[in-house]
Amino acid sequence: MSHHSTVFGQFLKLIPRHDFDALATTHHRGAPLRRMTRFSQFVAMATAHLAGRHSLRDVVANLAAQGPRLYHLGARPVARSSLARTNEEQPWTLYEALFGRLYARCQRVAPRHGFRFKNKLYSFDSSLIDLSLAVFPWAHYALGKAAMKLHLGLDHDGMLPAFAVVTESRVSDVAGARRLAFPKRSIVVFDKGYSDYAWLKSLDDGGVFYVTRARANIDAVTLDQNAVPVTGNVRFDRRVALAGKRPREMGMKPLRMVGYTCPDTGRSYVFLTNIEHLAAQTIADLYKARWQVELFFKWIKQNLKLKGFLGTSKNAVLTQIWAALCVSLLLAYLKFSSRIDLSMQQIARLLQLNLFLRRDLMALLRNQPPMPPSPPGQWALAL
C-alpha cells in the first residue's frame, strides 16, 4: 500500500510554501518569532475553521493530540499563549495578501460564468459578522450590538470571493465599495443600497458596467424607448436622463432603465444600468444572479468558524476572518482542480470528518474505498 500523509497535510500542500514564507517575512512586526511560525498560526486557524474547534484551548489541544503528524504538516507544536500572542500582535495583512495569491491561482482553473458575453461578472454586497458587545466593546454597532462588516465582490467564474474589505460595522456600504477597484469592462451587480450617484459615475468613468435596482423615488426623464417582446416578462426598456439636481451637476450620462416582472413571484422590478450591448432580459437575469453573493455569505458563516472568535482584539478578529476567506479559496481550488462533482459544503464536511486520517485526498473526494493494509513482513506471496 502506498504511503499517504494526512488528509490535512495534502490539503495544506495546495499553498505554495515559498510564497507563504515570503509573505510572512514581508508582513511581520517586532522581534523574530522563536518557536512559533506564521505557518503554524495558519495551520491552527485552518484547524479551527475545518474541524469546527470552539476555542483557543480546543484548537491547541486538538493539535497537541496530533503531535507526531505536525512535522508532516510543515508546522511546529503550538502553545496556547504563543498562538494568542501571535493573533494579537502579528499583522492580519499576511492573510489578505495570501487571499490575493490564492484567488489568482483559482482563476486559472475556475469554470466560466453561464452567460454568453465575455465580460467578467461580479456581484457585490456586504454582510455583518456578529460579535458580542461584552467581549468586543471596540466593535460597538447600535442598540447594544457589536459586529464587523465584510464587503465582498463575488466572481461568477467559479463563484469565488474576488475582492474583500473588512471594516467596522459603522462603515457604510458605499464607503466600503469605494475601496475596491473593479477591472475595466467588467460588469458589477449590486442592490439599490449602493445607488450613490457619485459612485455610479466613478464606475462609468472607469469603464466599468453596472446593474442595480432603481430607487422608488428616482427622478428620471425618458429620452427614448426600445421595443420589447409582447409575450415576455420585460415591461419596458428605456433610455433615461436623471433629472435631479445632483446628477445634473455631476454631468451624469443618460442611463438605461429596464422594467421587469418576475414570472415566479409576480413582483415588479426596475433596473438601472449603463449597459447598452445586452438584451433587457439579460439585464434582469444578471440581477437575479446577484443572489449568489448572498448564498456565499450564508455558506461561509455556516461552514467556517465565524460565529466564535479565538481572540478579542481587532487584529485577532481580522486574522480569523481573512483566514476563513483563504480556506474558502483553498476548498474552491481543490474542487476545480480535481474536477469532482461535490459542493463546497460536501468537501468541507468530508475534510472535517477525515482531517487527520492517512488517506489519499483525491480517493476520499471521489468516494473510492481505502486500499487494504499490506500484509506483515517484507515478502507477501499470493497463490
Task: Jot down its keywords.
383 residues, alpha+beta, nine-stranded mixed sheet, 15 helices, 17% strand
Question: What do you see in this structure?
Answer:
The chain is of the alpha+beta class. Among the domains are: 146 residues, no CATH class; 99 residues, no CATH class. 41% of the residues lie in helices and 17% in strands. It is built from 15 helices and 9 strands. It has a 9-stranded mixed beta sheet with strand order 3-2-1-4-5-9-8-7-6, with helices on both faces. β6 and β7 form a beta hairpin. α6 crosses α13. The chain is globular and about 70 Å long. It starts with 6 loop residues before the first helix and ends in an 18-residue tail after the last helix.
Query: What sequence of helices (H) and strands (E) makes up the elements?
Result: HHHHHHHEEEHEHEEEHEEHHHHH
Category from helices, strands and their pairing: alpha+beta
- Can you list the strand order of the major beta sheet? 3-2-1-4-5-9-8-7-6
**Backbone CA Rg:** 25 Å
Roughly how many Å apart are the termini? 19 Å
Helix content: 40-55%
Tally of alpha and pi helices = 15
Sheet bearing the most strands, described?
Answer: 9 strands, mixed
- Average pLDDT taken over every residue: 90
